[in-house]
Amino acid sequence: MGALVSQVWTARSSRVPRLHFAPDPAKVLVKAPVTGSDADEHPRESLDAFIAARCPSLYSDFAPTWWLFKTDSGHLQTAYAVVGDFSRIDRVEYDRTLLRTLDGGTIGLDSTPPANERTLPDDTPIVVVLHGLTGGSHESYVRAVLAPACTPVEQGGLGYRGIVVNFRGCAGVPLTSPQLYSAGHTDDIRVAVMHIANRFPKARLLGIGFSLGANVLTRYLAEEGTQSRLVAGCAVACPWDCVKNAGGLEDNWLHRTVYAKAMAQNLQRLLGRHANAIAKFPEHPLAKVLPEVLNDKSMSLTQFDGKVTCKVGGSSPPFPFPSAWDYYAWASSHEVLANIRVPFLALNAEDDPVVQVLPIEAGGNPYVAFAVTEKGGHLGWFGKVQATGETRRWVSRPVLEWLRAVGEDIVVRDRQIKPLHVVDGFLKEDGRDDIGCKGVEGGDHVVGVEGEEGLFAGL
């Protein structure tokens, strides 16, 4: 793998994930038993040793369910993530809070457990979740993590709080401005984390992103560096190099016809649901291109991004971009991995048909652990649970082990967090007058298994 990666855990079989670390992994402070005068002294562990001791699933076999196994691709795993019925498992309910941003946009925060279900201590760790392309808190891959993470400890869970950041227009969140979201725009997650930190100042915040949300999370952590309010991150099925991976979708007939078209259709349907809201901004580029976009029945993802996302997928500057490919180059997260300064776990499948280029070297970043499974598809990883015979997502196991480890075992110090203040009702961060948020009416109780009908789930 080159000189940048000197520690690769050697798999005993092809079904064991391959783990990649920097030559000299970061040392993390870990909690030690309280023993007299040594109570304030905390041992340091290298990131590879920290993970080896606390994430055993990353060092054991992942055996795909036999009827989803295919030797040359992850199509079956990915297809099951899209068409499988997960409505009867991992039931999660939320309280929704709507946040208005300075530009007039709206994002939705779905918190679980709901207030009427149980009350948690103010210092309970919080899992901050970013969903995929057109997903939301209802997605099965989100619930597969949050259901056990937020189950009480006495019932076998972690007992954490979960908060899903639903992007503009997704999962029933109203579209109140013509600006959309994208793989590279981080200000919405930034203000969401500011709001969460302000609401729960004693809680430890742990970030996890899926697919497009993993890309946003990676870029956010890289941009924040030592000022990150999230103390750890986990990126699942991140697209990383958007140029090369988009090119892989476009250059392969099957990928272009199935995946690129399905993702474009999801985005078209999402815009169609908000057509009336977009019509309130008749002079905006989004309103002018909307009829053409909605009427194109053969649009690919790159074509959609070339007409919509590269123009309105974030604030100006840097938007608009001349083309989808210029936007992809800017939005990619593989080159910023080196700037992350919190413990970070990346999980990808080698046979993912959507993400085919993986930056396992991570720029030599000592804070990054990169795990790659041979099988799993895109947001799949379905395997058989031996005890029950059920088909469930294997990836939930290492993610939960990671969340417990960084939520409970590490000691967080030397963070350079900027103070928050309120100006004209908007929560802002010192030194950033251009972004902010405030709560608005419209939040409600949300049942997580009630999804966005008509969309291809899991993409």
Describe this structure in words.
With 459 residues, this protein is an alpha/beta fold. The protein folds into 2 domains: 342 residues, 3-Layer(aba) Sandwich (Rossmann fold); 90 residues, no CATH class. Helix content is 29%, strand content 20%. The chain contains 12 helices and 18 strands. The strands form 3 sheets. Strands 1, 2, 5, 6, 7, 8, 9, 10, 11, 12, 15, 16, 17 and 18 form a 14-stranded mixed sheet that branches. A hairpin with a 4-residue loop joins strand 5 and strand 6. Helix 7 packs across helix 10 and helix 10 packs across helix 11. The chain starts with 6 loop residues before the first strand and ends in a 12-residue tail after the last strand. The N terminus is likely disordered.
